[in-house]
Amino acid sequence: MMSLTMKQQDQFQEAILDHYERLSTEEIKPFEKARTITESLGYRAEDLDALPPEADLGLGCGNPHERARPQAGESVLDLGSGRGLDCLIAAKAVGRTGRVVGVDALASMVDKANQIASKQGFDHCTFIQGEIESIPCEDSQFDLVISNCVINLSRRKPTVYKEIFRVLKPGGRVAISDITTKKALPAEWVADPHMAKT
User: Fold this and answer.
1) Among 42, 43, 60, 41, CA closest to 51
2) Strand pairing of 99-104 and 75-79?
């Protein structure tokens, strides 16, 4: 496995944040067929029908709700929440006796997600800016942590998992949809910061 210098790791992080910032501000247009992509991952049409299309950027690679099954009254954390699709679905499931928090690295994503949640009347669903390697939440706060195609973007995955278990309540659950590799990627891909965002 090829190891990267600190400078290379910083370049990777910069490329990833720049890409998602451009998606957030629509400098890069979100997928036109975001809904089709999201439905193909197993999201229920009735869940998507209940939410504004702008909450769905079509960037997931699975459906953490299939395993997560948030329950009424639970507290849920979504890592890499984007515009809030998974949070809003979870907020509907946990109801007003529960709470949902989305964490995203970008202020623009957090602002947009909070606007969408507010317009939809989800006052028990909030979004905060932060890194998944240093989750800005207290210990033992959540019954459930979900994430959809975000942890793969981190260069410090063991730290992310330590943070997940730090913020989970005893007996809490984790549901992650993500991508992995079965074999080593070509060295030129690994060394290219622009490949990291795909």
Assistant:
1) 43
2) parallel
With respect to residue 116, please indicate whether it lies within any of the assigned structural domains.
Answer: yes
- The domain tally of the chain equals 1
Residues 107-112: contacts with CB within 8 Å, 24+ apart?
108/21, 108/24, 108/25, 109/20, 109/24, 109/81, 109/82, 109/83, 110/81, 112/24, 112/54, 112/83, 112/84
DSSP 62: S
Domain that holds residue 157: 6-195
Give rounded-to-5 percent helix, strand, coil for the chain: 40, 20, 40
Residue 82 lies in a domain: yes
Task: For residue 127, tell me if it sits in a domain.
Answer: yes
- Which tens digits make up the pLDDT trace of 102-124? 999 999 999 999 999 999 999 99
CATH number at 89 reads: 3.40.50.150
How many other CB atoms are there within 10 angstroms of residue 25's CB atom? Answer: 12
In tens, the pLDDT along 135-187 reads 999 999 999 999 999 998 888 999 999 999 999 999 999 999 998 888 887 87
- Residue 1 within any structural domain of the chain: no
Crossing angle of helices 107-119/6-24, nearest 10°? 30
> Helix, strand, or coil here: 117?
helix
| pTM > 0.85 | yes
